[in-house]
Amino acid sequence: MGVPSPDHPPPRSGASEPVAPLADLQAFAVELRRMNGEINRMTHGFAANQQLHPTDVSALAAILDAPTPLTPGALREHLGLTSGAVTACLDRLERAGHVRRARESTDRRVVHVYYEASARAAARDYFMPLAEATARARARFSETELTTVLRFLAAMNEELGEVPPARR
Predict the structure, then answer these.
(1) What is the C-alpha separation between 41 and 54, in angstroms, rounded?
(2) In whole angstroms, what is the distance from residue 6 CA to residue 136 CA?
């Protein structure tokens, strides 16, 4: 059968047999691209459903995943956008009711961005199929395997975070 490619992805039947040795870099690349594509498909669908730009959804994810409230500057750095683009993004998100900006009480120059609870509910409802698919996939692995997968994904994100953006 050979290694899956964008033209010939592996079947979606849930077969647990790998199509290439686990150490095969190309197999990792193919599967990571496929997963990225599927998540992008859902993200773009949510953006269209909410009448947002896909970048707005990336901003929402960053705000949701941040351990503490983000500032517009931190969001700009995370997304790699200009300050004007982040301001426009936050304006759209605020108008749509997804976020609110609040000035810090001790230093009025500091603005924090918060994900609105009502918007979280809309996102949770829309992305429920993703959560359910994740639960089904997780059920096919042991806790030890899942711990290893999570370590791998965290390591990939760490490594990717160190890769400088492409220069033209």
Answers:
(1) 10
(2) 24
